[in-house]
Design a protein that fits this description.
The complex is a heterodimer of chains A (about 300) and B (about 240). With about 300 residues, chain A is an alpha/beta fold. Chain A folds into 2 domains: about 220 residues, 3-Layer(aba) Sandwich (Rossmann fold); about 70 residues, Alpha-Beta Plaits (2-Layer Sandwich). Chain A has 11 helices and 14 strands. A 6-stranded mixed sheet of chain A has the order 6-7-8-3-9-10, sandwiched between helices. Chain A has a 4-stranded antiparallel sheet with strand order 2-1-4-5, covered by helices on one side. A 4-stranded antiparallel sheet of chain A has the order 12-13-11-14, with helices on one face. The longest helix of chain A has 18 residues. The two termini of chain A are about 35 Å apart. The chains are: A alpha/beta (about 300), B mainly alpha (about 240). The interface between A and B is medium-sized, with 24 and 22 residues. The structure holds adenosine-5'-diphosphate (ADP) and magnesium ion. Adenosine-5'-diphosphate binds next to strand 2 and helix 1 of chain A.
Chain lengths: ~300, ~240
């Protein structure tokens, strides 16, 4: 459904995307995970026909995004990062405007259908400008779904929402993702893991990793920092754990240590055993959630190492 | 054509809930009303003014040069500011269809306003004998419509350049006033000053159309200016994709 080959985009001299390639199959939910400035929005704008790439090619639903831009745009539903609404239009008027531009058949029925789907059926006469951030996001999603697109492209669909709204929007995405290809961007690792079938990690305009969330998780297990607190003091604990072959980077913290292990390996069992065997009381053993920065750091280091050895 | 008319209809309707549109219309009708009352009250009875349907048109032209940019300034600037242009340009819609639709919508609204100003000639005609020269009036109004078409296209072009509406307004006023003052160059005798003077937008109005003479060349001038400004506007919209 989406085929991207060696896609590059520069703003002036600044390379925002460098030769990225990936694919998404029909019915797949593809996550685009990366920190701010990684090039997520740029990629999506190219795929939706908003702007052409500097080099490389991309096909969406079988059509080239540059040569057959209008055909692509007919088949894509897009929710930009800042939800584009016209504040003076009601939700229904807004959808009627977009739906008529897109030649949606039986428009009024279809509008009721999507309003229902995104849970806005009671707010159809509210002005878009008066809707809360979460409801605007839903309205934007309704607009993206209106013409039954084969491909749905959502740029940070949960950004700026409160936790309850985030859960609602995520559920909605999973639901609409059952029968079409969805590509969504996020800078939240757990979000990509929850919603997506496959995740691409993008950083500084390059794709660093591509895998299923489960594989990615285990691949990144070493990026977790394990917090250990015992009845002993920090220093002797650090010495004890330092003897283990798999502990890297031991940091002293209040009442204990923080350690990280090698990529792909969970070192918590061995730590627990060591402490019990040393006859200490284990007070805390927890994995602090992986910070995205650490993942990117790790992946970039791995990549640099690979490039050096080549 | 379908898409152009959808966009035009939306812009046209938007003027009816726009405070700026009401303010602009109020300026036009209040000032013209004042001029009209003064003329009727003092000019006609003393015989210093002849009954002429065009008596409010000269102030109207000046007002239009300052007010139409306020009607057009938001057309593209606001969409860029709010990010809705991204929505529009990722729908199966061509750039020039957006530009043309927006221009048509604003043109429709200005036609309503111009039609409203026809009330003044109707009143004069009613209360004077033998009435006014309807031919000259019609010709002057045809010229006015052509002039407004060009002013709106220039305003739309200015709006395409900015995401800031006041900047779009000032740019449009700047272009329009420049096109007005260069008309003064025809006092010069060189071919160069004559060529520049040809751009004088109000000469093309007052020389013939206002006098009741419809010359095709003047209408072609306004049509070309309109087409050029619309073309430039869609080039600017298109260029955003390439930056
Ligand atoms: N219109 C633009 N002009 C210049 N630089 C831009 C423009 N848009 C984005 N960039 C730059 O390109 C990089 C990628 O941006 P973007 O695709 O928006 O990243 P993301 O969506 O992942 O946060 C950033 O460094 C950003 O500053
Ligand atoms: Mg972004």
């Amino acid at each position: 459904m989406i085929q991207v080959k060696n896609l590059s985009k520069s703003y002036g001299n600044f390379p925002a995307l460098s030769e990225i390639s990936f694919q998404a199959k029909r019915g797949e939910i593809l996550g685009f995970l990366g920190p701010n400035g990684a090039g997520k929005t740029t990629t999506m704008r190219i795929l939706t026909g908003y702007m052409p790439p500097t080099a490389g090619s991309a096909k969406v639903a079988g059509f080239d995004v540059v040569e057959e831009s209008l055909e692509v745009r007919k088949r894509v539903g897009y929710l930009p990062e800042t939800v584009p609404i016209y504040p003076e239009l009601s939700a229904r008027e807004y959808l009627r405007f977009m739906g008529s531009l897109r030649r949606v058949e039986n428009l009024d029925d279809r509008i009721d259908e999507v309003l229902h789907k995104v849970g806005l059926q009671d707010r159809s006469e509210s002005y878009a400008g008066n809707l809360s951030k979460g409801l605007r996001q839903r309205l934007g999603l309704a607009q993206a779904l209106l013409h039954r697109p084969e491909v749905l492209i959502l740029d940070e669909p949960t950004i700026g929402l409160d936790p309850a709204q985030i859960i609602g929007v995520r559920e909605l995405i999973r639901e609409v993702g059952t029968d079409r290809t969805v590509m969504l961007s996020t800078h939240i690792l757990s979000e990509a893991q929850q919603i997506c079938d496959r995740v691409l990690i993008i950083h500084q305009g390059r794709i660093l990793a591509e895998d299923t969330p489960t594989n990615l998780q285990s691949q990144l297990a070493g990026a977790e920092r394990i917090r250990v607190r015992t009845s002993s003091d920090s220093k002797s604990l650090a010495k004890l754990l330092g003897k283990l072959p798999d502990t890297e980077e031991i940091k002293l913290i209040e009442g204990g240590v923080e350690v990280s292990g090698p990529p792909g390996k969970d070192i918590r069992p061995i730590i627990a055993r060591t402490i019990v065997e040393a006859d200490l009381d284990l007070l805390e053993l927890s994995a602090s959630s992986v910070s995205l920065e650490r993942i990117f750091l790790q992946l970039t280091e791995e990549q640099n190492a690979r490039e050096d050895s080549e | 054509m379908r898409i152009i008319s959808i966009i035009a209809a939306r812009e046209f309707r938007r003027y009816y809930i726009s405070p700026i549109a009401y303010a602009g219309a109020a300026i036009i009708f209040i000032i013209l009303g004042g001029v009209f009352v003064m003329n009727i009250g003092f000019g006609l009875p003393t015989g210093s003014l002849r009954p002429d349907g065009r008596m409010v048109l000269q102030p109207l032209v000046i007002i239009l040069m300052l007010v139409t940019p306020a009607f057009t300034m938001r057309l593209l600037a606001e969409e860029q500011q709010e990010g809705t242009l991204e929505l529009l340009l990722t729908a199966p819609v061509r750039d020039w269809e957006v530009v043309l639709g927006k221009w048509l919508g604003s043109f429709g609204f200005l036609l309503v306003i111009l039609a409203g100003t026809w009330i003044f000639p109707i009143i004069i005609n009613r209360f004077t004998v033998p009435g006014i020269d309807q031919g000259a009036l019609l010709s002057a109004y045809i010229g006015l419509v052509a002039l407004v078409a060009a002013l709106l296209a220039i305003g739309l072009f200015a709006s395409s350049l900015f995401s800031n509406q006041p900047a779009a307004y000032l740019t449009a006023v700047g272009i329009t006033l420049s096109l007005w003052v260069v008309g003064g160059m025809r006092a010069g005798s060189s071919a160069f000053s004559q060529a520049i003077a040809y751009l004088g937008i109000l000469n093309h109005y007052y020389d013939n159309l206002y006098q009741g003479v419809i010359h095709l060349t003047d209408l072609i001038f306004f049509a070309s200016l309109t087409a050029l400004a619309l073309f430039l506007a869609s080039q600017v919209v298109e260029s955003r994709r390439w930056r």
